Amino acid sequence: MWLWGSLTGSGAPPSGCLLGAGARIDLATLAGASSLGGGLEALRGRCVLLAAGDQLTAALALIELDGVARRMVLCPPDLSAEHAPAVMRDSGADAYLTDAGAAAVPGLAGLHVSSGPALQALGLTRRRSHDTEWILLTSGTSGAPKLVQHTLASLTGAFNAQEPPPGPVVWATFYDIRRYGGLQIFLRALHHGSLVLSSAAESTADFLARAAAAGVTHISGTPSHWRRALMSGAAARISPRYVRLSGEIADQGILDSLHRAFPRATVAHAFASTEAGVGFEVRDGLAGFPAALVGAPGAAVDIDVTGGTLRLRSAGNAMGYLGAHAPALKDSDGFIETGDRVELRDGRYVFIGRGGGVINVGGLKVYPEEVEAIINAQPGVRMSLVKARRSPITGAVVTAEVVLIEGAAAGAQAEELLKGEMLQACRRHLAAHKVPMSIRIVPALEVSASGKLVRPDA
Amino acid sequence: MSERATITSLFEQVAREQQRKLSPLSDDLRLLESGLDSLSFALIVARLEDKLGYDPFDTAESFPVTFGDFVRLYESHSR
Asked: How many degrees, rounded to 5, is the angle at CA A393 between CA A387 and CA A394?
């Protein structure tokens, strides 16, 4: 299967459109026009890093290059210039794509193609030559991204088996489509309707106004996106039939708030991860998921809970990680451990956090080790523990506990000075969501018999 | 210090830390037009909980839209 082939498989041109903040593209026009400025055939068989800033540009490239490129690497807009060369190396990329008019990117090598929604005549018939791999990026312990290997089949498995929704569907998503949650919506929308893409430069209220003007029926985002939408005062502009949450724990508070804001909509929360794919969708308005989903025979997704951790096995799982020292993705039974901790309460599993202390701040993962490494490098610090604190706005925020070297600070004032230096160092080296909101000096931290810091579930 | 004064000073403090330009804090200022992002609001709410000892979002019926809504959410909780 290939994307353009499946969009035109019925013989009729695709009927939907993509609505960016600055341009609209009817999918049918792609039969005779291209966003790649004549670069389509030059990219055949190559491994292409998609480094465009604009989501519509990236969306068009994904449609045009599936079945053509050997590999597409979906760089999210916040990929740092520091990590881009490593991503290029580990993915074996020999070409990269930027927004039209963008200069060559320092640190990137290979064929440079610039691309954008100002289409040019294609001059040839689209044809498939490759089973294109889709490489998604997810954050890793050291701060460098991990490369997760998917195919169009693994990415569309979750909804291809389902009946398409009845009636015309206009999707919108707060997500960037280069992230797994947004990519799911992008692929659904292509097959079953149109899509309103968000833009980093646009306010939440303006995006909702644009979605309303397009007649949005289905809309998705993380709980943090939705809290922000409710805070914008503009949520009443839309009246969707379907409201979806994923990417973070959907607590009862946000589910209830969305039911009140959209009384006519189905409010569904889905579990998905870049590695494990879509696990399940819950539509009963309650947090967590029914215990009956676990071990259900004949299900498209095998759901298992072992040692309090959720594991998934399905055709939606990624193939593996790319790179020289990539860890194994699946266990010997073919399951992927999601790292999400669950607890059985009254016949329902509820999410209680993530194993290994991983913190989810508004849908962005923070590995505590990465923050601790910065703090531990500061003078006067013996050891530190970075952990989550619950937040009604972003799900969690980061805090730190620090043990000082004996005699490093005499008195409260000296301690404050050291804490200030630690925070300064974190701000210099880390993205804002990774910087601890507070640092507490503690006399000791618990260390296990094996000599490791004892981490609470984040 | 009143809730309003505490909240105002925390908005200013977090805006400085996050290097964001804060709009003048009038009651009808929309929070999402104040210059602060979601992370900034998360920091403000966490620090308010440390200072005041409660988090009114736990029991709030709706999310505050304006700065005035935000202040009233805290004032009504403390009464």
From this structure: 45
Residue A444 carries which side chain, given as an amino acid letter?
A
Specify whether the CB–CB gap between A130 and A67 falls below 8 A: yes
A438 vs B: CB within 8 A: yes
Query: Residue A48: helix, strand or coil by DSSP?
Result: strand
Task: Point out the residue among A224, A233, A253 whose CB comes nearest to the CB of B65.
Answer: A233
Per-residue pLDDT tens for B13-50? 999 999 999 999 999 999 999 999 999 999 999 999 99
**Count of structural domains, chain B:** 1
3-class SS of residue A425: helix
Q: Which CATH class is domain A358-441?
A: alpha beta
- Chains A and B form CB pairs within 8 A to the count of 66
ipTM value of the model?
0.94
Q: Which residues does residue A399 pair with via DSSP β-bridges, in sequence order?
A: A387, A438
Is residue A123 exposed (0-12), middle (13-18) or buried (19+ Cβ within 10 Å)?
exposed
**Which residues fall within 8 angstroms of residue A377, CB to CB, at 6 or more apart?**
A425
* Structure confidence at residue A253 (pLDDT): 86
Q: What CATH code would you report for A3-340?
A: 3.40.50.12780
Three-class DSSP category at B4:
helix
Domain with residue B74: its CATH number is 1.10.1200.10
